[in-house]
Amino acid sequence: MHYILHDINKYKRLELIKKLKLMLKDDGRIYIRELTTKEHGISVKKIENLMLSSGFKKISSKEIYSLLLKHYYVGIFKRGNL
């Protein structure tokens, strides 16, 4: 999922992530790349809380800074058991 989560209505994000989880195989993974600036993005804490509360397990994550995109987050989450 690339640079889209912050544009989804915050009240519908959890529902979307839960639907994506149901579409994945038992060991399926989601790769997230998301802007994290205050002006246009979503906080790392909100991303990780959303994924963990949906039953995903964090495999890896890091925050990155680039001149083009400014601050962004990269995370890999594995589908947990239903």
Commentary on this structure:
The chain is an alpha+beta fold and 82 residues long. It has one domain: Vaccinia Virus protein VP39 (Rossmann fold, 3-Layer(aba) Sandwich). It contains two helices and three strands; from the N terminus they run H-E-H-E-E. The chain has a three-stranded antiparallel β-sheet with strand order 1-3-2, with helices on one face. Strand 2 and strand 3 form a beta hairpin. The longest helix has 11 residues. It starts with 12 loop residues before the first helix and ends with a strand. The model has no long low-confidence stretch (mean pLDDT 91).
| Main sheet record | 3 strands, antiparallel
User: How many DSSP helices?
Assistant: 2
Q: What is the alpha-carbon Rg in Å?
A: 12 Å
Strand order of the largest sheet: 1-3-2
> Which structural class best describes the helix and strand composition?
alpha+beta
Mean pLDDT: 91
Give the assembly state of these chains. single chain
Compressed to H and E, one letter per element, the order equals HEHEE
Named CATH architecture? 3-Layer(aba) Sandwich
Low-confidence stretches: none
**Whole-number tally of structural domains:** 1
User: Could you say which overall geometry the principal axes of the C-alpha atoms support?
Assistant: globular
Question: CATH homologous superfamily - what is it?
Answer: Vaccinia Virus protein VP39
CATH topology: Rossmann fold
Helix percentage range: 25-40%
From the N-terminal CA to the C-terminal CA, the straight-line distance is 21 Å
Q: Determine and state the CATH class.
A: Alpha Beta
- Write down how many β-strands occur, each being a DSSP E stretch of 2 or more residues: 3
